[in-house]
Amino acid sequence: xxHHHFRGKEIPHIKLDPxxxxxxxxxxxxxxxFNAKQLGDAAKLYAKMIKDNATICLTISGAMTPVGFGGIFxxxxxxxxxxxxxxxxxxxxxxxxxxxxxxxxxxxxEVDDMILFQKExxxxxxxxxxxxxxxxxEDQIIQKxxxxxxxxxxxxxxxxxxxxxxxxxxKSKYPQRSxxxxxxxxxxxxxxxTLKDSSLALNLAVHRLRDKTYSLDFVREILEQAAxxxxxxxxxxxxxxxxxxxxxxxxxxxxxxxxxRNEHGGQNYIIQITDARPDTGGLSGATLEEGKSWGKIKNxxxxxVTVYADxxxxxxxxxxxxxxxxxxxKPKRLYKKLGKYYDSLKxxxxxxxxxxxxxxxxxxxxxxxxxx
Length: 372
Hints:
Layout: H1 22-30, H2 34-51, E1 55-60, H3 70-78, E2 84-87, H4 89-100, E3 104-106, H5 113-118, E4 121-124, E5 127-130, H6 131-145, E6 154-155, H7 157-171, H8 179-185, E7 190-192, H9 199-202, H10 205-208, E8 215-216, H11 218-230, E9 235-240, H12 243-250, H13 252-259, E10 269-274, E11 304-308, H14 311-325, H15 338-356, E12 357-358, E13 363-364
Helix pairs in contact: 1-2, 2-14, 3-8, 7-8, 11-13, 11-15
C-alpha cells in the first residue's frame, strides 16, 4: 500500500451534464478527491461485493426508517443485494408505522418542544410523529403480536423480526411499505443488536408484569451471526453509521478467531458511512483498518472504505449506483439456513476442540498467530 508516487488518476475538470446517469456521477466522484472520492470508491466496492457473490450484511444505526429509508432497504433486499441485517430496534419499530398506515410527517427542528408535548407530537429531529395515533397505535400492535408468541421459550431477535414481518404481511394495510416484510418474504434475517434499548422491548413489559417470560437467547444469536460468516465463501458489510450494529456484525471475526480458534480472518469487505471521529477512541469512530488487529477484517489495505459523510445523503447514492448497474442476485435465503449453519459451526468447533484446550480440565492453550 505505497501511495508515495505521482501515478494517480488525473483530477478531472468536472463538467455536469443534465442527462448524466448515476454511474457517470459516481465515476466523477471516484476520480475526484476528499469524501467524494471515498463515496465513489465505496459505491464501486459495493458493486464488487455483489459481483463476487459475497454474503452481504447491512448494518443500520440510529433511526433511518422515520425518514423513509426503509424503502431503500426494501429495494436492496428484493434485488438480492442484502443477505442479512443488523439494526437498532428503532428502525424496526418505526418502519412498522408505514405498513399500518400510521401518520409520520415532515416537521421542523427549530421548535419549542414544550409546545409539541402539549400538542401530543413526538419529534425525531425534523420528523413529527403523533403520540396516540402513531406510537400508541403501534404499541397496541406489538403488544397484541407478542401476547401469545415467543413465550416461555428461548428466541432470537431474528425470530422476533421474522414474526413481525409475517404479521405485517398478513394483516397490515400497506405491507409493501415495510422492509421487514420484504425480509420475511426473502428470508433475510433481521437482528436487533440491542432489543431492550427500544420500544419493541418496552411493549413486552405489560405482559411480563402478568408473569409471561421472554427469554432472548443472545448467545445463540451471536453464534448464528458468526455461522453466517463461517459458511460464506466471501462476506462483507455495508455500515450506515456505527453504534452497536456496526460492532455486532464485525465481532463475528473475533468470535470465530479469538474465541472459537477458527482462524477465519474476518470480513473480506467493509464499507462504512459515518460522521464519527476516530481520535476519541469510540468504537463508532474506530477505523475499519483498526479492526484488522482484532481479526474483524481480512486485509486492512484493500476492500475497506470509510466515507465521512451524512448517511442520509451518501447512502442513497451508494444504493442507487448498485441498483442501476448490477444484475439482481438469487436470494441466499439465510433465515431458513440458520439452523444448518449453526450445526456446521458447532460440529467444526467440537471436532477441533482438543487443539485449543487441555482436556478434561478445559484449560485454554496459547494460540500461535499465523503470520501474514
